[in-house]
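Structure representation.

___
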Amino acid sequence: MESAYKTVREEGSFQFIINKSRFIGYAAPCKTEEEALAFLKKIREKHKDASHNCYAYVIGQNAGIARYSDDGEPSGTAGMPIIEVIKARNVVDVCVVVTRYFGGILLGAGGLVRAYAEGSKVALDAAQVVVMHETHRFAFDAEYSSVGKIDYWLKSQPVQVNDREFGADVTYDVSVKQGDAEGFLQGLTEVSMGKIEPILLEKGYQPWTETEN
């Protein structure tokens, strides 16, 4: 039984303004606490002149490490809203930093909570939340005469086509979730009438878009 989990695909950022204060939400995938702290350090150095660099990170598939900081904002108004958004999305192995440049207008405790929660949300969206599934990656060759049929069939399958190389035949590189692998192989045999013999390239976790099951 596979153990899928959510994380972010890549580093991302997004900024917005609330009552003249500029907020910039950053998120990045981090496998260890050291990586999270290194990302935090990078953002702090980039925004040395910012009023605040508030953050939260959650590490481990079981969310075993979770830390957050208000970085000078009133207690409970920044770090906690950031980590609550992360937890609500069930995202792990991630660090989110929300930078604020104060614009001269006080937002109040409620306003700060909403602003930092929004900063966390837009940061996660920018970094693209994905679901990591145990995945089998296969390669197989198809004759040119069957490519149209194979391509049409693949569109109906729960697979990711990573690459196609055109040589004497067309070589496909595809990824299939572990739970779908058996059905995929059986279907490929049927659609090719037994002519295609796929090769397993590797097994491991691979990102799939959050909306996919």
